[in-house]
Amino acid sequence: MSIVSLRNHSTVFFQLVLSCIALYLCFRDVDLEIIASVHKSISFPILITALFIKTIGLVIREIRLWLILDKPKPRFSSTIYVGLAAGFFHTFLPFRGGDVLSIAMLHKYCGLSPSKSSVAVGICAFFEMFVFGLFFLGILLMTPLWYDILGEQIYTQSFWSTSYIMLGCIGIVIIAGIIGKRSEPEANNEVSPIREFIQQLFSETHKAIAQKKVIIQLTISSLEILLMLFSFVLGLWAIGINPIAPWGTVCIVLAFSAVAAVALPPSYGAGPAAAILFVFSLLEIQDESALSYAAIWWILSQVPTLITGVPSLWLIKKES
Known about the structure:
mainly alpha
């Protein structure tokens, strides 16, 4: 077994152990009988609707990825299959590992250069993060009750951390675009593969920005984020939980879950469960209800990626 393979196995094992510990801490003081009886009160029509909406959101994200690509574009279906298949693995991988896999699969199955696929995936992730950041900041600013619920310290840290990250990402994209406009591939000169890749990366970033599709990307990204949030709001209603601000609740839970996903892959359920338990405790919702919703959250997060990702793995191999 290679050192890299051993390291990957060790990372997965560590994440699994850490997730188990986190889940134990979440469940140790709750009444499991109450949680086990929740299924009797679930509104399955609402839950199925939430799953459908979440699935539509996943497909829209991959359409957005295809729209980012410069001409000549790869086959539309191949791009969608790659995105959905990589999205399935993304739930198991920390540090946005699914994006790295998506870059590799776009290169393998769609014939895109590593630089072009890297820029496409990066720009797609950037707009997704940027729009969600706007939603998050908007909820904090337009719903004053979150200042009292979160407390001054958490509220301030959340607001400014999100703002700085968004400004930093905007700055990186703009600088990369400017460098890409000024840098041209060196003709008749031998260039190291790494330097050539970096030059192409900047160049492709400039092309992506110069296409002036920002409004389209912002619009489609907003639709994607709205559908995702709405599916989680429906998850609340499916088990009869009606917090004061349902949209703000799921948005803040999602933000905290994203932070936890750095160490705890969402597929293990520990990160979202801890985030939900924390936010619901601030809303004075009992732990049993919080963990019941954590189960619904896991279903909404994993089932759509499963039913779209697994068939896509087979279809992309068949199509290539």
